[in-house]
Amino acid sequence: MANRIQMAVAGIASRRAGGGAARALLSLAGGLLVGLVVLSLLTLGLRAAADPDALGAAAADPDVYSAIAVTFGAAAFAVALLVLFGTPLAYLMSRTRSRALPLVEAVVDLPLILPHTVAGLLVYLLFMRNGPLGSALGSVGLSFEDAFPGIVVAMLFVGIPYYVGPARDGFAKVPFELEEVARTLGAGPGTAFLRVALPLAGRECLSGAVVAWGRAVGEFAAVVMIAYHPFVISTLIYTRFTQYGLADTVAIALVLLVVCGAVLFALRRAASHLWRPDAPV
Fold first, then answer.
1. Residue 170 belongs to what domain range?
2. Does residue 64 sit in the same domain as residue 193?
3. Residues near 39 by beta carbon (within 8 Å), at least 6 away in sequence
């Protein structure tokens, strides 16, 4: 009996040692990617610190904060539209078994593989003054060329797969039987969707919205094709680089990284508190 206990203890210790080695290997592999990002941030920070005058000027430049405000505002509008129209699309895609589904999925994912200049060209052709949608909406006073709405639609276009994909996966994880139970209890299809499917897929929807917002904030080529003005932060950085060189650009980039990092951290923290794995739905 004692021998069996000793063998069992030895087996457990061996498995723990093997598991520790595996965790160390996984940590090393994952740490390489994290280290790459951290190293790039340190390099930028050191380069900016080498010219404190440029850094101070960028930190006090109202044009920088105006461009950040335009960028964040347009990205927020784009994500709001994505949530409004993309959530029903993601739900239908998760519940459909049609032969046309692969085609719909390919269309939704297309902005992922398009060069962003091509994405911007598509948006421009659609929303320019004599474009199919631009001319129709222009008749009611809505302009897109070199205007805030043009920034929004460009961000919306490139952000579609970043929201719809995670939201679709979230709805796919929700058993359809739960909605059927809700309907047997008197809930209509809309109520079952809002009270059952959407809360259970909420974590994935929120995560997709955060990623889509981040993608929209970082967009340049698609935006500049239709709306060079008003400046978003990526356009301002590019313009300052061509006009004043590297020092001014590095300083603005550092300011942007601090602001974006703080916002993303706050969003991720809010998401983790809203949908904790052990929290009741």
1. 55-274
2. yes
3. none
Same domain, 140 and 21: no
114 and 197 part of one domain:
yes
Instruction: Looking at the structure, tell me whether residues 109 and 126 fall in a common domain.
Output: yes
Residue 280 lies in a domain: no
In this structure, are 33 and 74 located in the same domain?
no
The total number of structural domains that make up the chain: 2
Nearest Cα to 67, choosing from 194, 265, 230, 277? 230
> Do residue 29 and residue 134 come from a single domain?
no
Q: Is the dihedral of CA 213, 214, 218, 222 positive or negative?
A: negative
218 part of a folded domain? yes
Tens digit of pLDDT per residue, the chain (281 long)?
A: 555 544 444 444 445 545 677 788 888 877 888 888 889 889 988 888 888 888 888 889 999 999 999 999 999 999 999 999 999 999 999 988 888 899 999 999 999 999 999 999 999 999 999 999 999 999 898 999 999 999 999 999 999 999 999 999 999 999 888 888 888 877 787 888 888 899 999 889 999 999 999 999 999 999 999 999 999 999 999 999 999 888 888 999 999 989 988 988 888 787 777 655 444 44
**DSSP state string for 122-167:** HHHHHHSTTSHHHHHHHTTT---TTSHHHHHHHHHHHHHHHHHHHH
Helix axes 233-244, 62-95, angle to 10 degrees: 140
pTM of the model: 0.83
Question: Minimal CA–CA distance to 71: which of 281, 247, 224, 244?
Answer: 224
